[in-house]
Amino acid sequence: MIAGMDQAVADGVDIISMSSGSTHVPLHRDNIAIGAFGAMMKGILVTGSAGNRGPDFGTLVNGAPWIMTVGSASTERTFAGTLTLGNGQKLRGWSLFPLRAIIKDTTLTYNKTICSCNSTELLSNALAPFIQVVVCDGPKDFSSDLAIGFSFQMNSLTDTGFLAAIYISSDPRALTSKSFHSPGVVIGRKESTQVKDYISKTEHPTVSIHFQETYEDVTAPTPKHPVEAHPWLVPHVSGIAAMLKSKRITVATTNEPTTPYGIGSGLIDPNRALDPGLIYDATPQDYVNLLCSKNHHNCSNPSDDLEKI
């Protein structure tokens, strides 16, 4: 792989696009990072994928700072639902429920007998006029497809007459649920501890839930569902880079404060990239200094040869 990248450099290419990258390896054994370092020294941009699957948790690959690392998202927004507990505490969760359901100062419960939320019999026995929102532990019986588990819980709650639910799960597979047909919000383990603590210490716990909320998210766009990967994402970014490079842009700094989006996060906007704002023109020595600061090697005898580093 390194020889191929070296040959591309020798051929005088402007951009090297690397869609591969499935497992994390140490930097000194990372062939893409080593080859990309040499390309960077010649002013050649290397693009690489941040991973090759999702939305499960995983370790970033192709994360060397001299590589343009590409992730995927269908939107720059996070779809959220906000819980407001009776004590005024606000917690943000995730929800694709499409309507503006009115859940305001509604009674809230967490009961270990029904917290699996998958038995209509148990839920029916627990339902009472003064209990309208239930806290559900994430489904455990659908490990192969968590989305099916959530859908089953929603159906059980709807059939028994609960108004809404708060689902507890830190598993990213929960985000693969394409159907959110009843009012509900997914929260993580940390937030669930706060909710349970509030319920246990309050005689008549209540909650308000606001749906249809979106927030800007720091993350190139994919035309598919929000949780599905797109296999040709890196070439898309490489093509945009080639278009911008053909403009031979000269950028001057304005000394204006920047944001996470200005330093390389967020969705690609080719038009705005023509006037990118703050630019730090890093040199190979800057990257060597960075490696030294991370104790990747003995810097008493520095070298710009990554294989020696």
From TrEMBL:
Domain Peptidase S8/S53: from-to ranges: 2-83
Keywords, alphabetical: Signal
GO molecular function: serine-type endopeptidase activity
Entry annotated with the keyword Metal-binding: no
SUPFAM superfamilies, A to Z: Subtilisin-like (SSF52743)
Pfam families: Peptidase_S8
GO-annotated biological processes: proteolysis
Gene3D superfamilies cross-referenced by the UniProt entry: 3.50.30.30, Peptidase S8/S53 domain
Domain of life: Eukaryota
Family: Belongs to the peptidase S8 family.
Protein name (record): Peptidase S8/S53 domain-containing protein
Species this chain originates from: Solanum lycopersicum
